[in-house]
Amino acid sequence: MKILITGGAGYLGSVTAKALETAGHTPVILDSLIVGPRKYADGRIFYEGDIADRALLRRILDEHPDLDATIHMAARIVVPESVALPYEYYRDNVAKSLELFDELTALGKTRLVFSSTASLYALKPELEVRENDAVEPTSPYARTKRMMEQVLEDMAAASDLRAIILRYFNPIGADPDLASGYHLRDATHVVPILAQTALGERDSFTITGVDHPTRDGTGVRDYLHAWDLAKAHVCAVEEFDSVLETTGETSTYINIGAGDGVTVREMIAAVERVVGRSIPTTEAPPRPGDAVGAFANADKALELLGWKAESTLDEAIASSLAWAEKRKKVLGY
Question: DSSP class of residue 121?
C-alpha cells in the first residue's frame, strides 16, 4: 500500500513512516517543516508544503494516483502554547484540515486515519476511559481535536469520506533504530524533560500540579512506546475497510494506549529505576490547560485492529533515554 502521511517529518510521523516501511508499505510525506526536521523525510517520497494547499494536494495525487489512504498527523500539539495562541491552533488544526479533507474527498481518496487525543476525555474518578465516555476538552489544543472529530463524523455521514479516529494517549520512546525521535529543542512533555534531567542537561524536573485528585496528587497519563503507536497506524490502514464494515459506521473512534495509568511521581521513579540514579525535582502549579489525565481501555483496538501495546514502560523509557543521548548526532542539536 502507498500511504500519505501529513506531518510525516515530525516525531510520530517519522516513526509511523518507519513502521509502514517495515510492514512493506510506502509512505508519502507531506510536511511544512515548520516543526518537523527535514532529515526525518530523508530517503522517503517527500513534499514540502501546507496541508491546505489544494494545488499541491492535486499534484501529489497526480504523481501518486495509487495512494490507498491518508494518515493525518500534522497539527500543533503544545497545550500551554494553545492557551497563548488559540487563533494559530484553530487556524492550523481546524481550518486547514477542513481544506485537506474536502480536497481528498473531491479527489476520491476517501480513507482517512486521524490523529486525535485522549486529552479531550472528561475526568472520571476511576480514570479509565472508553471510546463512548463523555468528552470535556480543557484546552484550545484539545478542543481543536474534538472539533475535527466532529467534522469527520459529519463529513463521513454526508459524503464518501471514511474515517478511523485514533485517540492517542502518551507516546514516548523513539524509532527502534534510533533514526528519529522527539525533536523539539525546548521539550514540553514529561519524558523528554526527564531524559534531559537524567542526562544532566537540566538542573531539575518540575512537577506541575501536586494537588490533583489522584493517588499521589500528580497527574495521570497512559504511556506507550511510540513504536507501538506507529504499528497501530499500520493496523488501521491495513484493516481500514474491515473495521468500518464490522462497526457498520462511516467513522469510528479507537483508543490507542497501554491501558495503565502512571502518575508523574511514578514516572519519575521509573526513570530513576532505569537510569540507576535519583532525579532532582521541584514543584509548581499546573500549567495552563493541563488536565488531570486518564488511561485507556484499549479493548476496541484489540477487537478491531488486532493491536495491543507490546513494550513495557521500562523499555519505552530506555528508548527515550537512548534517543536523548543520540539526538545531537542525528539532528545536530
Answer: B
Task: Tell me which long-range contacts 238-243 makes (C-beta under 8 A, separation of at least 24).
Answer: 238/1, 238/23, 239/304, 239/305, 239/306, 240/69, 240/111, 240/113, 240/162, 240/164, 241/111, 243/164, 243/304, 243/305
C-alpha cell at 60: 501529489
Q: Is 141 a catalytic residue?
A: yes
The hierarchical CATH code for the domain 2-172+224-257 is 3.40.50.720
Q: For residue range 7-44, list pLDDT tens digits in order.
A: 999 999 999 999 999 999 999 999 999 999 999 999 99
As a whole-number percent, the residues of the chain with pLDDT over 70 amount to 100
Which residues are CB-contacts of 38 (< 8 A; sequence separation ≥ 6)?
A: 9, 48
- Of the candidates 11, 47, 121, 141, the residue annotated as catalytic is 141
Dump strand ranges (E) for 190-285.
205-208, 220-221, 223-225, 251-256, 262-263, 281-284
pTM over 0.85: yes
Q: Where are the domains of the chain?
A: 2-172+224-257, 190-220+259-295+312-331
Domain 190-220+259-295+312-331, CATH: 3.90.25.10
For residue range 101-142, list pLDDT tens digits in order. Answer: 999 999 999 999 999 999 999 988 899 999 999 999 999 999
